[in-house]
Specification:
This protein is an all-alpha fold. The chain contains ten helices and no strands. α1 packs across α2 (about 15-35). The longest helix has about 50 residues, at about 45-95.
């Protein structure tokens, strides 16, 4: 249930905000019009002190989480760049081999992999899964490197460099794929959402003379809360939503190949 709510926030943030604000409005009217609930109204003096303490604790927790997921988000982008760079190293090294078939097979394997990453794997990553087509292209690259038989000392040097590049490429791919999984444990999400609900409830329970102005303030505060939680979710899922990491580095490889073919 929690995952479904967070996924809705990420995929359609404005609809999610509208739903939350409507629910907040209903809860507000329920407390204000129910005579029993009115007895729970908070005095602005004592209640304000408690409310301030809650806000301080929640703000520290939220700030800590945002910093953590932002660093992870940047790391994911760096891993995509590193993976693409190592793949392109194989592409450039292919020109060092005198056999035309070998050289061409290497470049085609790189282009096929980059194309599959952009067209197959990235849409799959948006749904927390992997593409078997891209995995096949990845295995094909290893097969091409395995089948290279250097015939000159120069080719032997370049082949050694290619083996190093493809090993680093494999490591970068594994680390990039690992970023599909959420870095924030469920218990922390429960703390964030539970803390937000408690603070919103405190906001609603304050006694005021003008209920409509009070409702407006509650809605404004609720909007800030839901935006903050949506930001945390989107940063924690770097391949989903409007803030997703794009395969731009792999697209540059394809652009380079297309320019060479002209």
């Amino acid at each position: 249930m929690l995952k479904a709510i967070l996924y809705l926030i990420n995929m359609n943030i404005y609809f999610a905000i509208a739903v939350v604000l409507i629910l907040v409005g209903f809860v507000f009217l329920f407390f204000k019009r129910n005579s029993l609930m009115k007895k729970l109204a908070l005095d602005t003096a004592i209640g304000g002190i408690i409310y301030g303490g809650l806000m301080a604790v929640y703000s520290i927790l939220l700030a800590f989480v945002v910093v953590v997921v932002w660093q992870q988000y940047q790391t994911t982008g760096d891993r995509v760049e590193i993976e693409a760079a190592k793949v392109f190293n194989l592409y450039r090294a292919s020109y060092a081999f005198s056999a035309t078939a070998v050289s061409k097979n290497i470049r085609l394997a790189v282009v096929d992999y980059a194309t599959s990453v952009c067209n197959d794997e990235w849409p799959a990553l948006a749904h927390d899964s992997l593409s078997p087509v891209t995995q096949h292209k990845y295995n094909r690259m290893w097969e091409v490197v395995y089948n290279i038989k250097p015939t000159t000392p120069s080719e032997q040097i370049w082949y050694t460099s290619m083996v190093q590049s493809i090993n680093q490429f494999g490591e970068a791919r594994i680390m990039r794929i690992s970023d599909v999984d959420s870095s924030i444990p469920p218990i922390m999400w429960q703390m964030l959402i539970g803390g937000a609900l408690v603070i919103l409830l405190f906001t609603i329970l304050f006694s005021t003379d003008n209920n409509w102005v009070h409702l407006l303030k509650v809605i404004m505060f609720s909007t800030v809360i839901i935006f903050s939680l949506a930001l945390v979710y989107m940063l924690d899922h770097p391949f989903q939503g409007i803030l997703k990491v794009d395969p731009t580095a792999f697209q540059k490889i394809l652009t380079h190949y297309q320019m060479e073919q002209k």
